[in-house]
Amino acid sequence: MGRPTGRQTCWRCGPDHAAARDAVDTELDLTGAALAATTKRFGLFAVHSAAADRAEYLRRPDLGRRLSDEGRAQVAARCPPGADLQVVIGDGLSAAAVATQVPALLPALLTSAAEAGWSIGQPFAVRQCRVGVMNDIGDLLHPTVIVLLIGERPGLATAESLSTYLAHRPRSGHTDADRNLLSNIHHRGITPAQAVERITGLAQAMHTLGISGVSIKEPTTVRALPTTAPPEPGPTSST
Q1: Are the C-beta atoms of 182 and 161 separated by less than 8 Å?
Q2: What does the pLDDT look like over 31-65, one tens digit per residue?
């Protein structure tokens, strides 16, 4: 019998391999069924990195690390600068991870930030996004802490795993050594609720110590999550 053909019938890995390939190729859609309610609730909008399309993004990682000229203009016009916490959503290598995890994670994260008394920047999404775009956004908006929710490279275990990168006052020249990472946010890994606790704890440490990256350790205990509703969409919000 010959080998099956087609993405959905990969002879080696079957549907798991197909799902991983689809996750890499799929474009982030803020108006699709999975994200439409979240987009409307928090006024999300999407901009592009300097990569013109998905193919160029995969060939040229450097272009995914900076915003397009149009993207920079949109962010500057719609996101007030100087927020205590700026949340950015990036498709990364799995738009499926964003669609699956962000609807639960984002509201809880914004609630936790508001309860901490932080001003919150207008959240937005970046298509064709690499982690280094945090530096470009930091140069543009000057937030105290940026939280980037980005799709991980999909594997055979899951194509829906999200990572969170945090940085204190990111700017040009910063590297991975200046960032903190929380990975494996998915239904068989770290849950959104657990992720929010850990993200909030790290962000609090960054605000207190004025540093991020290898110089900071994740707190061993964090405060309980708030139970109040998250802030409604707006330019900024604070308690």
Answers
A1: no
A2: 999 999 999 999 999 999 999 999 999 999 999 99
